[in-house]
Design brief:
elongated; about 400 residues; about 40% helix; five-stranded parallel β-sheet; single chain; alpha/beta; 15 helices
Length: about 400
């Protein structure tokens, strides 16, 4: 039974002619949903009762709606499967309501493009608020662009993955973030955050042409509602030649359209995978330690980044991990050798980092007052302070009430 409590609709501007289609096999539910949705000024509301023969709510339409409100019933699998058979670009923004208390059903709804799910009995104020969010986010989505941050070791074992994981966690406290592990064979971000990968980067890349933002979130593991992880699956061999540059470019574009921050943990190599990320990155962190060998490798990497990949100016920053004031290789030596004035120091706190890695808990939760956590927090704040003030995240609120990480 729908809850038809009175609600007030804020006078938010809606583009003229925007159409909402409400679809259900239940005639009474259709009438009640229509009554609520017609309270939104400027939104054209149409209803469609799905009868025997076709479960697809969009079947045979001459003109596709701008938004779809689907009230699912006993045939929810067939209804959602019918939508999933359509290419992502042919599915309008979707809101699902009804008796969908099965976790599998909720995941299917998310993969079909659902921005939110409202269980019954439906409260009118909640339905109107969800619809207004979907309308407003759709209208502003075209200008939304997240920031891409790349992290790369200058020498193996410098601490790049530690930086990538903990920086992503800090950024997720200020927006929504995707941590992308692009070390296809030996990636370890899933272990650092203790998340299980049901899908891998290769799964996503192979299906990227058919994906939208909601589907991407469904393929990620969720450390928290605002921090998602896409990495390798255990015992799966993925070779660099299995990934096409066009696929990776499409993934980065989709990720940046739906997350405020995308943090890419890169392997220590230059190939079509790392080059695609480095060429598009808003910020590149090269992680070094204070030794001659690290400095030599970092110098070569910095030259490649500048001369071959076009990384310029304040895009490139050097992160000195395990900083020791008394080390023979000083910050001045590093700055001169790498021709870089942007140098970040991370203090040497081995026991805290070791405990964080062993437990899979980021430093911000494991040791929030430690010196290294404060340094990482400052790094994130510096990034956010230079971010263009735009609202991203078309699906920022999608399924947060249902999928709590």
């Amino acid at each position: 039974m729908l809850n038809l409590r009175e609600s007030s609709v804020s006078a938010t501007s809606i583009k003229p002619g925007m159409r909402l289609l409400i679809s259900s096999s239940d005639a009474l539910a259709l009438r009640q949903l229509q009554e609520i949705c017609q309270r939104i000024s400027g939104l054209e509301v149409n209803v469609r009762q799905v009868s025997n023969g076709h479960c697809d709510p969009l079947y045979g339409l001459d003109r596709m709606p701008d938004f779809l409100l689907l009230r699912v019933g006993q045939l929810w699998r067939e209804e959602l499967a019918a939508l999933l058979q359509r290419p992502a670009h042919e599915r309008p923004p979707l809101l699902v309501c009804g008796l969908l208390d099965d976790r599998e059903g909720m995941r299917l709804a998310m993969q079909a493009g659902a921005r939110d799910f409202l269980p019954e009995p439906i409260v009118a104020t909640e339905l109107i608020a969800a619809l207004m969010r979907m309308v407003m986010e759709t209208q502003t989505n075209s200008t939304a662009t997240g920031k891409l941050v790349a992290v790369m070791n200058a020498k193996g074992g410098s601490g790049g993955t530690v930086l990538a994981c903990n920086l992503a966690h800090q950024l997720s406290l200020k927006g929504n973030a995707l941590l992308l592990d692009l070390d296809l064979q030996f990636g370890s971000v899933s272990h650092h955050l203790d998340v299980a990968q049901s899908h891998s980067q290769l799964d996503v890349l192979q299906q990227i042409k058919e994906m939208d933002g909601v589907a991407l979130r469904g393929f990620c593991s969720h450390f928290s509602p605002s921090l998602h992880v896409l990495g390798s699956r255990a015992n799966e061999l993925c070779l660099p030649q299995d990934v096409q540059a066009e696929q990776l470019d499409a993934l980065l574009q989709l990720a940046r359209a739906n997350y405020d921050w995308v943090v890419a943990d890169l392997p220590r190599q230059i190939d079509h995978i790392t080059a695609s990320v480095l060429e598009q990155a808003d910020r590149v962190y090269v992680v070094v330690q204070q030794s001659v060998n690290h400095l030599r490798d970092a110098s070569s990497l910095a030259r490649i980044l500048r001369d071959d990949l076009g990384v310029r100016g304040n895009q490139l920053e050097v992160v000195v991990n395990r900083y020791d004031k008394a080390a023979p290789v000083s910050l001045k030596d590093i700055g001169e050798a790498l021709r870089c004035t942007n140098i970040v120091k991370l203090p040497n706190d081995f026991s805290v980092i070791n405990q964080s890695q062993n437990t899979g808990v980021p430093l911000g939760l494991q040791a929030p007052r430690s010196a290294i956590t404060q340094a990482l927090r400052g790094l994130a704040e510096e990034l956010v302070g230079k971010q263009v003030d735009t609202e991203n995240g078309l699906f920022k609120r999608a399924f947060k009430r249902v999928f709590r990480g």
